Amino acid sequence: MKLFKIVLAVAVLFVNLLVAQPSWADPSYKENPDYIEVTKTIKELRNNAEGNIPANVQRQIDELEFQKAAIESGTAWGQCRNETGANLAIYGTGSEESEESGSANQLYFLGNGQTTPDQWDCQGIYLPSDVKVASLDKSSAVAIKIMDGTQLLVKKNPDTSELELNLPNPKVVKPGDKDWFIPNVSQAFVETRIPNTFTGGDNG
What we know:
Number of strands: 8
Number of helices: 5
Low-confidence stretches: 17-26
Structural class: alpha+beta
Mean pLDDT: 81
Order of helices and strands: HHHEEHEEEEEEH
Shape: globular
Distance between the termini: 49 Å
Strand content: 15-25%
């Protein structure tokens, strides 16, 4: 009986080793699309520099390294804060319906003074064509994509009425991108929407 228990314990241990993922295996963040994109961009920037890296390129690399580290730490979500004085359309994880229509995400509405909660993945913001954004030249509606681990603050400049983003190099997504729903609506329409109620992690 004692021998049987020993054999059984060894068999269970062997099965666990076969089935369970070993602790030294690649962590899940390496499959994160943002992590893949950040890593690829860092590599491209370094390769394109060919030797001495210009200061502005090195700054981009350093910023991307921060984003990479945030994702590696387990922060698999972005956060958005609205200080525009009006509704802000933001992107979050799509529902089954939005995925069936070809979009990987969908639009939600963030009220003035609101911040998306921890664990709720804000993937970016929608900017109507009639909204002016400082340091951003656009002639149509666009989306601004943010990486996991990013806190995006959008506020209105009281002197110019332009929106200001706290991102040094915003990633612009234009209409036609198959993964992003970018409608052609006005800011006035966005302001008629009832802001969503957000709960941490409910869109992941």
